[in-house]
Each structure stands twice: as C-alpha cells, then as structure tokens.
Amino acid sequence: QVQLVESGGGLVQAGGSLRLSCAASGRTVSSYTMGWFRQAAGKEREFVAGISWSGGRTYYADSVKGRFTISRDNAKNTVYLQMNSLKPEDTAVYYCAETRRMPAMEVSEYQYWGQGTQVTVSS
After folding, report:
1. Which has fewest Cβ within 10 Å: 53, 81, 91, 123?
2. What residues in the chain have per-residue pLDDT under 50?
C-alpha cells in the first residue's frame, strides 16, 4: 500500500507562488497516473491537475491552466505542483492522489490519497 504525503503549503500573497510536493512511500508510483485536487472550506473536492506515469501527458482544470504546472520525478517517487500567479480563490487544502486511469478527473477514480496541505492566498 502506498502512502502519500503532501508538503509545501502555506500563506502567500495574491500574485505569489508556491511549490507543493507529494512524496510517496511504501512502493513506487512510477507506473501510475498522479493527480492534484483541492477542497475549499464548505465546497466539494475538485480536480486541479493530472500527470501520466511517464510525465509525458498533463492536463489541468480550466481555472488553473496557464498558472499551475504539474510534474513528477519518478526517481524520487515524488510529484510536484508549481503554482504561480496565485489568487485568493486558490485558497484550499490541496491533496495528491494516485490512480490507474488516464485521464482521470473525478475523485472516485483515485484510489490513494494524501492527508493534504493548506494553501492560503491573501488579497
């Protein structure tokens, strides 16, 4: 069973940047699609970005396209989310997750989840 641990969240001003990391342990995730989701207070968890096992294919929610970049380093068993030009509406708990499907943008398609990291963007 894989364990996923997110890090890199914090408080940032609007227009700033953060880089989230998702470190996997227990086994390799190099054969799996990985995704980032977020959940704002009082709202449902929503898809943010996904990346194929090789990193050769990425896809994004329209709300973050052009601002966020997902990447992975299979040698380090880690997935990243570079977030630029952050907006107050990006404030949420960010989760990484693993799936065998590609593409996959629904919460129900992912099997393993991390505990999340808080991102707060002040105006």
Report:
1. 123
2. none
